[in-house]
Amino acid sequence: MVGGRLQEDFDLIHIQSLRELGKLVLDGTGIGNEGVFHIVSLKQYLYHLDLSNNPMIDDDAIPALILFKNLDYLSIVGTGIKMPGLRRLATPTQKEGREIAIEIPSVCEKYIDNIEKEYLLQPAPPLIVDPTVCSMLSKAALKRNLGAHAAVNSSILASGTRKEMAERLKNILETRKLDLIVREMLTDEDTEGA
Fold first, then answer.
1. pLDDT tens, position by position, for the chain (194 residues)?
2. Residues 35, 107: one domain?
3. Upper half-sphere CA count for residue 5 (Cβ side, 13 Å)
């Protein structure tokens, strides 16, 4: 399967019986999300999975990828996976204390490299970082918090009704929290290779 294209994702069912397969390279084989789900049966032994250059694999494949708990290497370069999918993958990986060397799509890499332009990365008190308390803040506190993020990213609106501002700040802080998990996952990979 290395270096060749598959007729259909369904063709991957033929390797499901290779239960002790440790390394699987599906680089540029033309598979999509269905193909990723077909190889979940290999999750017990697979430690190296290369899905690079398969643009039909996108965020919908993340639930299957989360099941591969023994992976120490994953390449999703050249796939259609975006930041929402990467955030979904990083969260259980962090919670379970798994360390995985991961190669990510360039669009995600660019986003993480420029994360400090998305929102205020390290809010200092009295600004908040906990998204669960947004609904308890006064309108003035919400405006102050959103204003600090808007100073970094001019597309962030620092006005509106109290409810609108609370929801907007909550979304920013939830995204920030997940982005930091992704960045930590990638940083762990970089420091291990150094």
1. 344 555 566 567 767 677 788 999 999 999 999 999 999 999 999 999 999 999 999 999 999 999 999 999 999 999 999 999 999 999 999 999 999 999 999 999 999 999 999 999 999 999 999 999 999 999 999 999 999 999 999 999 999 999 999 999 999 999 999 999 999 998 864 433 33
2. yes
3. 5
For 91, which DSSP code? H
Rg (CA), the chain: 20
For 164, the domain range is 116-173
pTM score of the predicted model: 0.86
- Phi/psi at 48 (5° precision): -135, 120
Question: Which of 84, 83, 76, 85 is CA-nearest to residue 105?
Answer: 76
